[in-house]
Design a protein that fits this description.
Rossmann fold; N-(1-d-carboxylethyl)-l-norvaline Dehydrogenase, domain 2; 11 helices; globular; binds nicotinamide-adenine-dinucleotide
């Protein structure tokens, strides 16, 4: 099972997911509407694999085999395989539209998995033909390194679909964790105050970005909140903050920050645009 898959969206997550799939022997098509982003995704994968070769963690031949398993396309009709995983913008309407277009191309048994960080899988599935095949498959950033994959089901999801995506996660050398559709699932639900309360400290002038990051890194967090938001992408992090806030009936403690909104408006999205809370140029 899972000899061939497709991934939609060749950005931070889609490129990482496609890389992991190919590294684990799965023929993978990566589709993006934007040729520049697609090219960037391809270069990132190549650079990541080359870095493994340079550090003697991968044979040069294996790198070529991995690259040969990947194909890159801007034509949605090239999407095929036993599962299509979407990792496009964090917008409900965009995901519904994409899956409906995919549903016209692939057979009814093709699994449609969303890598959404926070949107309701039920809200997506209920708008797609054959909703039993729609499931959440939430990888973490950076996808090539992070082991965890949240497998999110709704009461529409078929039990065999849940088993199948767990199998795929294991085949990709990941650890599946099962959860029900809920705002932010497990990790983004628990982690939301980490970002929002740090932004509150910044808004109130309690401490600056570097102090907050350094302090939290010193008490054991791998990355401080601002460094992590820059890695995730401030557009994605803001969209997730808004989505969790709205779906939890707007609790004051989780109100998204105006600082996040300003970062998005000014295209200071973090590492991917070269500037966020920190400068990467
Ligand atoms: N960034 C993270 O840390 C992270 C972690 C886990 C999950 N996610 C989720 O993964 C998804 C993608 O996030 P990302 O950080 O990779 O975003 P990104 O902005 O890096 O990439 C999104 C890509 O999707 C493409 N795209 C947009 N609309 C499309 C469409 N209709 N069809 C095909 N391609 C399309 C864009 O051109 C872009 O290349 C989001 O749902 C996000 O919530 C993100």
């Amino acid at each position: 099972m899972f000899q061939k898959i497709s991934v939609c969206g060749g950005g931070t997550m889609g490129a990482g997911i496609a890389q992991v799939a190919a590294q684990n022997g799965i023929e993978t098509t990566l589709f993006d509407v934007d040729p520049l982003n697609l090219k960037k995704g391809e270069s990132t994968i190549e650079k990541n694999l080359q870095s493994l070769v340079d550090r003697n963690k991968m044979e040069k031949d294996r790198m070529s085999q991995t690259m040969n398993l990947l194909s890159f396309t801007t034509n949605i009709k090239d999407c095929s395989g036993e599962i299509v995983i979407e990792a496009i913008v964090e917008k409900l309407e965009a995901k519904i539209e994409l899956f409906n277009r995919i549903a016209e191309i692939v057979p009814a048994e093709t699994i449609l998995a969303s890598n959404t960080s926070s949107l309701s899988i039920y809200a997506i599935a209920s708008k797609i033909p054959h909703p039993a095949r729609v499931v959440g498959m939430h990888f973490f950033n950076p996808a090539p390194f992070m082991k965890l994959v949240e497998i999110v089901s709704t009461n529409l999801t078929g039990p065999m679909v849940i088993d199948a995506v767990a199998l795929l996660a294991r085949k990709m050398n990941k650890v599946p964790v099962f959860c029900k559709d809920a705002p932010g699932f497990i990790v983004n639900h628990v982690a939301r105050p980490f970002y929002i309360q740090s932004l509150r400290l910044l808004e109130e002038g309690v401490a600056d970005i570097e102090v907050i990051d350094r302090l939290l890194e010193n008490v054991g967090f791998r990355m401080g909140p601002f460094r992590l938001m820059d890695l995730i992408g401030n557009d994605i992090n803001y969209a997730v903050s808004c989505s969790v806030y709205e779906s939890m009936n707007r609790p004051a403690r989780l109100k998204p920050s105006l600082i996040q909104e300003k970062k998005v408006r000014e295209n200071q999205l973090g590492k991917k645009t070269g500037k966020g809370y920190y400068d990467y140029s």
